[in-house]
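Q: Start with the shorter request: fold the first protein.
A: Done. Sequence, then structure:
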Amino acid sequence: MIYFLSILLLLFLIYLITNVVNRTSTIEKEINSVLENRLKYTEREYQRTQEQLLDLRFKEWLSDNEFDIRRTAIQKISSHILDNISNELSIMKNHFAFNPKDIKFTGRFIDLIIFDGAADEQLVNIYFVDVRRKGIVPKHTFKNKVANAIKNGNVSFQEINL
């Protein structure tokens, strides 16, 4: 009988030990899961904080350098505007046969468009003009494409209603 009780006690102890070990393992898994979630949250918060800090540093830099940025932009645009005005005036002074009121300077794709006769309310002839300067090689072949489109009659008039 003592032998039977000792075996029974031993089985009970084994059961208790396995149960405690299983519970410990489950608790460890839950703790690890909670820690992983907290770590992910902390990493997201850290990333968000770094982005906010970077944004604040950029705004501070922008505020400190705004005057120089604006001055540089004004100098560049002023130079560009003066170049355009100089080009327009140089075209006009060379015995230009068209009324200056009929000219629309574009400076892009094609240098200017002349609506000959529009200022005098006459029959309008439209000219697309590419101004070539001596010693300057054209950078883009796009102007050739525009010229070909005009020569081939690939031109239309459209209205856009807003």
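Q: Next, the second protein, separately.
A: Sequence, then structure:
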Amino acid sequence: MSNLRILIADDHDLMRRGLKTLIELHPNWQVCDEANTGREAVTKAEQSKPDIVILDISMPELNGIEAARNIRRLSPNTEILILSAHYSDQLIRDILEAGARGYLMKSDSDRDLVSALDRLANHKPFFTSKAAEVMLAKFNQSGSNARVKEKMGDRLTAREREIVQLLSEGKGSKEVASFLGISVKTAETHRANVMRKLQIHSISELVRYAVRNQIIEA
């Protein structure tokens, strides 16, 4: 996306400046506004309708999760990237429930920020590998067949869980191989193992599995 407009919300001036520097190195990307509290972020997002809001998880007045919920309600087309210095399974679940489709550890921002913003600019999710594992955790589902598939999904390896997410996001075997730094043959082997373990026979079924388990959004 050209002319990407981004709002940065973080209560640390140094962090905001660092993010702004990384963003404005990219042609046609601009920081359209800044906020240092969650409440201010909501107000400014409603006013300026940015393409993406970067939200620190811990901010005064209103935390990042609640700010994300409000922004998604007031500006539905705005994508949200949550930044956190900490990690927990519950945090990932809360981020998903708030409607954010991006999550990035602050320690990874130098390396992954541009990739995260690029995916969100195209309305595709971006989550750290730890977050992807949480999104593959078992959720209560109706129907015995769904529960059986959930239990089988628990036996996927960490790499296979990565494969599920990438395939569900529309990547082919070559893209998966390139993304993970493995051979195409290895990617195809992982794909076959995933399908076998989950008793799934098509990509459309895999996408439904991913949506049901909140790995991706519908």
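Q: Describe the second briefly.
A: The first strand starts at residue 4 and ends at 9. Confidence is low (pLDDT under 50) at residues 138-153.
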